[in-house]
Design a protein that fits this description.
This protein has 100 residues and is of the alpha+beta class. The protein has helices at residues 57-69, 81-84, and strands at residues 18-24, 30-36. 17% of the residues lie in helices and 14% in strands. The chain has a two-stranded antiparallel sheet.
């Protein structure tokens, strides 16, 4: 994090807002995440890639059938985690408001 004055932000860049997202776990514990308000971002200016590798449902069914025929068991997978934490490029800069 680097604190930057609003006057130092380039005029062609937007300052995106941050929001807190709260979740209650099954155990009763609370979890808080600081997220960027995505609807305020402009494609090509604030981000340029929206790709995340995912498995097609037909591929998943085929994999399950092969595992079943081979007598193997399948464990559950967490698909949500792929979107939670993304890495920024080395020269990529995102301007955000201070967290509320």
């Amino acid at each position: 994090w680097t604190l930057v004055d609003r006057s130092d932000v380039p005029s062609d860049r937007a300052i995106v807002q941050l929001i807190w997202v709260y979740k209650r776990k099954r155990s009763g514990a609370l979890k808080a995440r600081l997220c960027v308000l995505g609807c305020a971002q402009v494609h090509g200016l604030d981000y340029d890639q929206t790709f995340c590798a995912t498995m097609r449902p037909t591929s998943l069914r085929s994999l399950a059938a092969i595992a079943n025929s081979a007598g193997l068991s399948m464990r559950r997978w967490d698909f949500v985690a792929a979107y939670l934490q993304g890495d920024l490029e080395t020269n990529e800069v995102v301007y955000c408001h201070a967290p509320p």
